[in-house]
Design goal:
Helices cover about 55% and strands about 5% of the residues. The protein is mostly helical. The protein has a domain of about 100 residues. It has a two-stranded antiparallel ribbon with strand order 1-2. The C terminus is likely disordered.
Length: about 150
């Protein structure tokens, strides 16, 4: 699912070159941005970038939170579901206040059955209900079975 920074098959024009440079600069800028909420125009590229950051360093909570907020901001429910699954897997039953806040803000964008499963997992502190959530954009789960759940 990695998106190349430069499309090697596209004919290079001035507009294409400027766009590719702008995308690369945006990825550099996001690394230094101290805000949790993204304030740029390259939403999908930054979502993919944050996925890669979470995969590389799953314990960095800041990247998880930025990913959830960006998915909410862009109304990308599949990305939001995956980001919440990954966040819950990393927290392993801790961070109930944070997770409750994230679920409250995410509620309108999530499928009702998924929201119920997230709430159940949060209430009981057990990650087993997450196995029933579609995990398409989750990067820390493995085939619908939370990979970090076994390490709990």
């Amino acid at each position: 699912m990695n998106m190349p920074l430069v499309d090697q098959h596209a004919p290079v024009t001035d507009a294409t070159g400027r766009y590719q440079v702008r995308r690369q600069l945006e990825l550099f800028r996001i690394q230094e941005d101290p805000h949790l909420i993204y304030r740029g125009d390259e939403h999908l590229i930054v979502l993919r970038y944050l996925q890669r950051r979470v995969a590389a360093r799953p314990s960095q909570l800041r990247n998880h939170i930025r990913r959830v907020y960006l998915a909410i901001q862009t109304r990308e429910s599949a990305h939001l579901t995956g980001a919440l699954v990954d966040l819950m897997l990393v927290l392993k039953g801790r961070g109930r206040y944070l997770l409750n806040r994230m679920l409250e803000q995410s509620g309108p964008l999530l499928r009702k059955d998924h929201l119920k499963l997230f709430e159940t997992a949060l209430l009981c502190g057990d990650l087993a209900p997450l196995r029933k959530v579609e995990q398409g954009e989750s990067i820390l789960s493995n085939g619908g079975l939370p990979s970090l759940a076994a390490r709990r």
